[in-house]
Amino acid sequence: SLSFLWDLDANHNNYNEALRAQQGRTDLVRTKSIVKDAKLDMLGYEQAVVLFNGLNYAPRPIFQGYSAYTPTLANLNFDYFASDRAPEFVLFKLHALDGRLGAMDDPAVLRLLPHRYHYVSAELGYTLWQKNPEPFDPVSIAPKLVRTAALKLGDTLKVSDLATEALWVEIDYDFSLLGRLRRFFLRPPEVKLQVLDSRGETKLYRLPEPIGRGGFILSPIINDTMDFLRANGDIPRARTAAFAVTAAPADRKFLADDVAVRLYTLPQSAAAKSYFHEENTNLFHMFVNAPSSYESFLPPNEDFIGDRRVMVMHAPSVMTFEIPPGATEISGKFGFVAGAYTDEGKTNGAVFTVVWSSGSESQVIFERTLDPATRANDRGLQAFKAHLPQSTGKVELRIGPGRYNINAFDWTGWTGIEIK
């Protein structure tokens, strides 16, 4: 301390340099140009970024998300964002903390955000959301009870029949007398939420008792910012198929055996859809119309078929396109990257299909199987054009594996997709 005081000027300069360096690393140029002097809150725990950028900080009552872990604290933040005091903008970056499911941090606000706000932009990993201009009624987004269950510790509850729904769950478990004593003198035993997702993967998350009692988004599975964006504007990475409340065998004596579960559905939102439109427009720049969503066996990557740049969508894959008003046809080109069938390439072909859907009905409007390893005419780019049955709905461009359902070397691509 004496050494520090001896050279205050040098230490002051060191702090100023550290501050300038940090400001440079988190300089949100685009965000500042949009927000200007409007009020803004930061969801997550990186509140310093707001201060570094000189934004007009209007924090909610519990200003760091992981601290809103009881029903009372979570509802204080919900009420703030549901009220006329809610800021015009929200800067949002979600982190999973301390082994919890990401959706357990500030859970009530996560439920509200995509219904009162809409996505505006993304910068340096932070997403900016703006308040919708129309009046907001919090009752309109209230969870609707669909199921209750009385479980035992370790029992599994399947929810795969609700796979298309957004789900909110409230879980009540209690401590034994021994567990209450332990909680008072030391800390509570560690309870876990075991989640089986729609991909067949099982993961464990810490489940503090107040968070379970207050509730959180169970499905889609949200652990980071991208999961949240997908849940509100794209195809979620994973949904919950089943879950259980568990504890280590040594901790069972500290817990009551009964677990009460209340399962609710939530209204769904497309508030982040523009994020994926913006992202997909840049990613699929070789298309005239970008897909609204896509899934692929491997991440999409650019390559060439002949001298034409294509987006490789390794089979099995699907791209979904919204039909613009008045459109009557879809066209484009497709084919195999040469390496799939030359030198060491051993593809056995693939099926390219275009499907129109209105939501209630669907129709295959184009389909062709290519087998470039055995048919020379199937090599290079192939063109297609198909009539749309209606000027509404969606179109899916699908690629399936060829013979024997083997997708090895299925380096298949599309280019020049246009709907007009």
Task: Describe this protein's structure.
The chain has helices at residues 2-6, 8-25, 29-35, 48-52, 71-82, 107-116, 177-185, 209-214, 225-231, 273-283; strands spanning 39-43, 56-57, 89-92, 117-123, 126-131, 144-152, 156-158, 166-175, 191-197, 202-206, 216-219, 240-247, 255-266, 293-296, 301-305, 308-312, 317-322, 329-336, 350-357, 362-370, 382-387, 394-401, 412-419. With 420 residues, it is of the alpha+beta class. The longest helix is centred in the N-terminal third of the chain and has 18 residues, at 8-25. The protein is globular.
Tell me the fraction of residues in β-strands, as a range. Answer: 35-45%
Number of continuous helical runs:
10
Strand tally? 23
Class of secondary structure makeup: alpha+beta
- Compute the CA-based radius of gyration: 26 Å
**How widely separated are the two ends?**
72 Å
The unreliable regions are none
Percent of residues in helices comes to 10-25%
Let me know the average pLDDT: 94
What sort of overall outline do the alpha carbons produce when their principal axes are compared? globular
Strand order in space, largest sheet: 2-1-3-5-4
Give the biggest beta sheet: 5 strands, mixed
What features would you highlight for this structure?
5-stranded mixed sheet; alpha+beta; 420 residues; globular; 5-stranded antiparallel sheet
Summarize this entry quickly.
The chain has 420 residues and is α+β, with helices and mostly antiparallel strands. The protein contains ten helices and 23 strands.
